[in-house]
Amino acid sequence: MPIIDSSLAVLSLWAVLGYLIGSIAFGLLLARVMNLGDLRAIGSGNIGATNVLRTGNKTAAALTLVLDGAKGAAAVLLARLFAGEDAAQVAGLAAMIGHCYPIWLKFKGGKGVATFLGVILALAWPAGLACCLAWLIGALVTRISSMGAIAAASTSTIFLVALGYGSAFFLGVILTLLIFWRHSENIKRIRAGTEPKIGAKKA
């Protein structure tokens, strides 16, 4: 049973821990270990799985996707284990912020999609699976990764409420807004018809 403690001090601690977990730049680390170059100088300059895929290394991209998702889930599950549900939500949000704005990279991080899905899966796995399906459908139909992200974010709060996880409603809304904010340029390119397809290499 978790030791439930929702005091401000405990929640603040898990906010810091969640941020630190989320700020681990797995894409950047894998690119260096696998001699793929500096992701910040490749394609979009993003540190996430989609940009890793632009290096042509599918294994590195898959590992980045899994690890970025796992860190979001880990932040939630550890906080839930030691401090309860409130701390889990705080840690999940902090992990997302850490991925998007890591202090180690001068607050220039990824778009947060994999971490977002990991957080939702750990908070409420049925809703998380539904979001993953929404991402998959959006990405496969359009062959645009950001469309999958937008589909998953747009439906996440609906899935949380519909599947009985209404306590995470406000977190779902905040995460959705954060995903949309991080994809604002992608949305502009989608409207202009210039958003690159999945796997396309950008010179």
From TrEMBL:
GO BP terms: phospholipid biosynthetic process
GO molecular function, one term: acyl-phosphate glycerol-3-phosphate acyltransferase activity
Signal sequence range: none
Functional pathway: Lipid metabolism; phospholipid metabolism
Catalytic activity as recorded in UniProt: an acyl phosphate + sn-glycerol 3-phosphate = a 1-acyl-sn-glycero-3-phosphate + phosphate
Any Gene Ontology CC annotation: plasma membrane
Membrane topology: Multi-pass membrane protein
Alphabetical UniProt keywords: Acyltransferase, Cell membrane, Lipid biosynthesis, Lipid metabolism, Membrane, Phospholipid biosynthesis, Phospholipid metabolism, Transferase, Transmembrane, Transmembrane helix
Transmembrane segments: 12-31, 113-137, 157-181
Main location: membrane
Family membership noted in the UniProt record: Belongs to the PlsY family.
UniProt cross-references to PANTHER family, sorted A to Z: GLYCEROL-3-PHOSPHATE ACYLTRANSFERASE-RELATED, INNER MEMBRANE PROTEIN YGIH
Known role: Catalyzes the transfer of an acyl group from acyl-phosphate (acyl-PO(4)) to glycerol-3-phosphate (G3P) to form lysophosphatidic acid (LPA). This enzyme utilizes acyl-phosphate as fatty acyl donor, but not acyl-CoA or acyl-ACP.
Subunit structure: Probably interacts with PlsX.
Protein's name according to its UniProt entry: Glycerol-3-phosphate acyltransferase
Organism whose genome encodes this protein: Sulfitobacter marinus
Phylogenetic placement of the source organism: Bacteria, Pseudomonadati, Pseudomonadota, Alphaproteobacteria, Rhodobacterales
